[in-house]
């Protein structure tokens, strides 16, 4: 037997051989919508040294055959497979001896050489098995000629920590949402804020932060998006003597003397800003 370094050199083929130096025309491809029409785990058609009838030979790189090879050695496992497939004893013995001589106990190398379209190969692969014989992936898998079918893609949230986790999803689509501090799925933390707060663009071109609460306010913090805050002054916070500090996105107001803003409604503070956009008030925290 002449075992050269030829094989399937197309990486998209089911039987791509990364060790092959030249292509021998043996490539076969995905059929019937399966990930592996004639899979790498079970599969050959044709015969063992031309002695088997048409159909699948569970040999090739199947786990069972590999385990048998590692236990018995290349020669004995090849002999057993050939005889089980109906091959004449003398010719099976010659075939097994040739494989044993060429590969010793190197099962992986023996299997790689055994599975090809070479007429001397132990199993002749047939890439058209799925196309010619089976109508769909499930029929192919049920036949034993392939072990895996492509799972349908189900897009959704795959993070179990998310509040909208989808146990049926196998591909994350970026839709995961999480509970905010108020326990709301995908919320911004504002649903449990005592009172109603808002933003209004005033006649001076500044932002009035409005409030409407049923309890006094002893301190507050919130974020502003889309614009850059440059300062805060006035409003009920100014009247109460609050210290109001700002960054480009955050406003914090509090009193060092225990002063508070009476329950009611009005303008909490007035913000100056730079930039343009649809400003939003988020992440509101109020100390009562």
TrEMBL record:
This is Uncharacterized protein. It comes from marine metagenome.
